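User: We ran a pulldown and think these components assemble together. Before we commit to crystallization trials, I'd like a predicted model of the whole complex to look at. Sequences follow.
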Amino acid sequence: MSRETRRRWETAEAPNWGPENHEPGAVIPAAGNSEEVETGGWRSQKPEIDTASCTGCLLCYFYCPDASIIIENDRAVGVDLKHCKGCGICASECPARAITMTAEVKE
Amino acid sequence: MAKATPNVLAVTGNEAVAEAMRQIDPDVVCAYPITPQTEIVQLYAQLVADGKVSTEFVTAESEHSAMSAAIGAAAAGARTMTATSSQGFALMWELLYIASSYRLPIVMTVVNRALSGPINIHCDHSDSIGGRDSGWIQIYGENHQQAYDNCLQAVRIAEHPDVRLPVMHMYDGYVISGAIGPLTPLEDSRVREFIGPYQPVNPLLDVQHPVTVGPFDGLHGWYFEHKVAQNLAMERAYQVLQDVADEFARLTGRQYGLIDPYRLEDAEIAIVVVGSTAGTTRLVVDQLRAKGVKAGMVRVRVFRPFPYHTFAQALQHVKVVGVLDRADSFGAQGGPVFLEIRAALYDNDPRPQVLPFIYGLGGRDIFPHDIEQAFGVLDEAAKRVRRVSTQRRYLNLRQGRGLEHERK
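Assistant: Here's a predicted model for the assembly, 515 residues in total across the polymer chains.
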């Protein structure tokens, strides 16, 4: 099911739903919406990619447990920080040592 | 198939329910096939093997797994049934809450039998009464006919859009489940018409509309709201239970209500009872009435949702109510049904006395003279000015604190 055709689940008004307007049984009545939920909030370190050193082996992409490595033209170009939890597996696995973990600084 | 069906069959309670299930022909039956399972599932397995039903029959390695499979099947969009008893019911425990909170209309037959220990296989209500807070609708039958009738009605109640809750229906182990009694079944076609086709809500197998069942509710989610929604569904179930019973009465002439009163209109003393002991109690009521004692009875048909308004009205004029519990709530003021009845009558003015009786644990027999003895306690209390003790009275207990220790 493509992103364009899938059903949306509008939850902006959920605080006003009361007990009766939630989907019975806490069912989520639409698919593919987990990416809308921010799960990167507990990160203490974040990966930084030296794109000049990247050889395009894609090991970081395949090892990442959260599918958070952004690939463009067969190269790692960035990290989806909405979902990256800072586990550091990408930095540990990169054969070119192109990924380093740096301290997460929060405002 | 041009075989004449007799109007009245002689069957065991389990055979009556297996016949109801054959006529319902659910999409999926999941069950643990070994003891403490009852004959119901054995009989149903034979129907599946003989091609008499189209059900997908799933045998699981435990009741925990059986209920898990039933939840999976119901979430997938299948009309799902199962059956259990005693320890099997206890092993389903955590899944009972999953089934009701997912709002899956599973129908389960529970044959009431004691929980260990000491190890005991006989009738009491400890198993299902213990599950009263699990979010399932509970209907208790008295005899073979009611076991069959409740099974059919349970499907309609569970699946009703105002309810969407699992339903368990019960009857007494051995007394009904294994003993032979009369059953007037409906014709297959009329059962099919009565239960109708199944309309699943948010089924997992509707791949055009993918859904997630059983997600984590989040750290600051809506668990509280979903629990309130379950209770609102329970409140709507009162009306649905009665509507389905009325429709069933038009079909069969057998009228059911939330409660089942007997000679209660002018009763001064009354007994509240669950299950097959209601039959014995009616006999005693008739004997006492013949002697001029204004005795009456109410059988609890629906225990969840508990029809407290109906009980408060029905027992308004009664001076002393005795509640016969076939399960105990250790350390509570009395048995579980006693606690409900006492709470239901609290706002009545005048407020009747409500006294707890415990009987029949682990299949201990209950005789007419035991019930007569209980009525004797109620009669004594009705004649007094002051209220009597609410200590438990044990019927047919060997030695110890029986009725002979009634405080003067």
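Chain B has a mean pLDDT of 95. That may be worth checking against your pulldown data before setting up trials.

User: Thanks, that helps.
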